[in-house]
Amino acid sequence: MTKRGILSYWRFYLALSPFYILFLIFGLYPMASTILLGFQKWDGFSPRTFVGLQNFAFLIEDSTFWLALKNTVVLFFMSTVPTLAIALVLAVMLNSAVRFSSVYRIAYFIPNITSLVAAAIFFAAVFSTNFGLINSGLRALGIETQDWLGQPWGIKIAISTMIVWQWAGYNTIIYLAGLQAIPREQYEAAKVDGAGATRTFFSITLPQLRPVVLFTVVTATIGGLQTFTEPQVMVGNSGGVGQSGLTIVMYFYQQAFLNNDYGYAAAIALSIFMLVLLFTAINWKLVGGRGKQ
Amino acid sequence: MDLSRRTLLAGGLAAVIGGTVVACSSGMDTGSAKKNATGNLALWCWPGGLGKSVLDDTIAHFPDQHIKFSEVGGDFKQKLLTTFSGGTSIPDITGIKGEDIASLLPQASRFVDLKTIGADDAFLGQYLEWKVKQATTLDGKVLGIPIDIGPTALFYREDVFTAGGLPGDPAAVGAQMKSWDDFLQAGVELKAKNPKAFIVADAVDMYGTIVNQGTSRYIDKDNKFIGDQDHIRKAWDTAVKAITLKVDGKNLGGTNDWNAGLDQGTVPTVVGAAWVALDIKAAAKTSVGKWRVAPTPGGPANFGGSFLAITKNAADPKAAFEVIKYMLSPDNEAKAFADAQIFPATPAAYDKPQLKAADPFFGGQVPIDVFGPAAKDIPIAYEAPLDAAIAVPFTDALKLVQVGKKTSDAAWAEAIEKAKQIGKRQGVQ
To answer: Which residue pairs from B276-279 have beta carbons closer than 8 angstroms and sit at least 24 positions apart in sequence?
Structure first.
């Protein structure tokens, strides 16, 4: 074997470099910059000044921050749990022999590639008080109408409904791929052993799907904790009544781009980062543990 | 699976933080204004900010300046700020929106004091004094020349008013609804006759208007928090009164319910700036010709209205000022009004034919008869850079009163506490 210097591999490094160069500029650099900014005060114009942990000290005292954090977590559960449950049911249904299954797949996936802003405007219209579709339906059924976007809980329902609508189809497709990878023999063996549909689902389908479920839970966590567009378009920058739709990313946006308080915003961004990290770790433990039966 | 998990997480992290902050160390070198290259004059404004015919005419009128106009869409202030931080391609002349001017005054070092390049008292005297004040720093530098203003009026449905036993004629409406209390009283009468008609479109919006009618706001010139004082509390109490009298329709401007309500008569009034007429006209289909304009109850206020400023980077500030002087002359401000309803900041323009025109949407009324006197009467109030941020807790808390989640006093106490906290972070006493 001839010794070869690292330089002789330049072609390979060159081939790999686009990702790393882009990541360096648009990933790592802003990340490092944000961490630094979290300890500074900056209005976007004046020179930055170092303020130590002051931003974080304010963060702890800031009731709006804690409210935004609570909203984010509540919205995350209100949207992720139904999304994944509906997706699993849909996937199992699509996986059994149905006609036109690709038509359904496309139909379920379309919300995911629909423009978020357009969809949010549409949902705001559906939930509007006097002339909205939902209230018209309630009226037709003789049920009392609700001021959906004018009530703290109504805002949360409207936002999570939209998230479910948007993400159920995407996760269905992922689950479907996972379902199709499960060997047919296992189902046949279960049938021979006399297992019913429910037993088969819980003893074979679900355990075999575990890595796929982990994937969807992790992506849903990362996405869900960064909810921004839906509430911003539906209830505006302030987060609506009682700031019920104010998510943590919206609060970050308010501080950075409306109040130009970039240092404080960076501190909020770092807290989002910690939160995502924490939730991902929990998910990993809960769903991903290599449990044997 | 391992690989994809890792890339997934890396991607997630990058998305969390990568998407966040523009930032960079190049923002450090402030104040050192590199001059733009001579020969071209870069002019930035947002879509619809300047009248099309005025702009074309100005470009043609200064052939030697090679004016290069950029229409900058989206978040204008953010883009201006980012460009300043980047240090290159900074425009010679830039528009500044009315809502951003207060927060840009502390950055006076980025802009040319127009007084030093020919904006003398005689020139500035052509513009409304209160509007020029908005672009004047506490130490007297004038950073911008007003493009337009947003004087408020009461837009109302004449047919709904007369059917509800209220006067229909603008002069009579103005005479009867001089104060907010009169207005709310009229609202009670209207609702007794027509339970679906709420005279206040949105009490939170009304609160903002009343604050704008005052001569002081949330922070005074000594950077002291004064949002807990009587002038704000009175605005608050008036809005709460609208809620308790049940004449508040809770229809936020621009929402579907608001749009539909304009035609259906459930939103029979809109208190808003002159430019709100565009929104009403866009949304109203069956009520064309039934709208009228009357003076704002409680006196005129202003919402919005922008400026043109010259950056320190301008290659030739004097030449840039000549361009502004021409473009924002009373004649051209009148033309801009004809172009795109850009309401002039120069009282001399109010007598021009473009503004004297009758408007069939308002049943042949001449809106300037209401807006003209209002524009000259707008109170001068000091707006601190942090004012907009401090106002947010108040409107948020008022919304809770509006939907019955909090009592007025509890919400007020919460608003004061939050406002003080925001102020404290930024050094307000």
So the answer is: B276/B155, B277/B155, B277/B341, B277/B361, B277/B367, B278/B341, B279/B253, B279/B254
Provide the shortest C-alpha distance from residue A168 to chain B (in Å).
Answer: 20
Residues A24-74 have pLDDT tens digits of: 999 999 999 999 999 999 888 888 899 999 999 999 988 899 999 999 999
CA–CA separation, B175 and B152 (whole Å): 17
Flag if B20 and A131 touch (Cβ within 8 Å). no
What is B37-150+304-351's CATH topology? D-Maltodextrin-Binding Protein; domain 2 (3.40.190)
Q: Are B373 and B151 in contact (CB under 8 A)?
A: no
pTM: 0.81
Q: Residues 250 to 279 of A: which have CB under 8 A from any B CB? A: 252, 256-262, 264-266, 269, 272-273, 276
Residue type, B381: A
B130 touches B375 (CB < 8 A): no
Task: Name the residue among B253, B259, B261, B264 with its Cα closest to residue B283.
Answer: B259
Q: Which residue has the tokens 């071209």?
A: B40
ipTM of predicted complex: 0.72
Cβ count near B221 (within 10 Å): 9
Nearest to B332 by CA among B60, B4, B66, B41: B60
- CATH number for the domain formed by residue range(s) B152-301+380-425: 3.40.190.10
User: Is the CB of A147 less than 8 angstroms away from the CB of B403?
Assistant: yes
Q: Are A226 and A249 in contact (CB under 8 A)?
A: yes
Our measurement of the distance from residue B378's CA atom to the centroid of its chain's CA atoms, rounded to an integer in Å, reads: 13
Q: Are A276 and A221 in contact (CB under 8 A)?
A: yes
Nearest to B35 by CA among B244, B275, B229, B319: B319
Domain boundaries defined on chain B: 37-150+304-351, 152-301+380-425
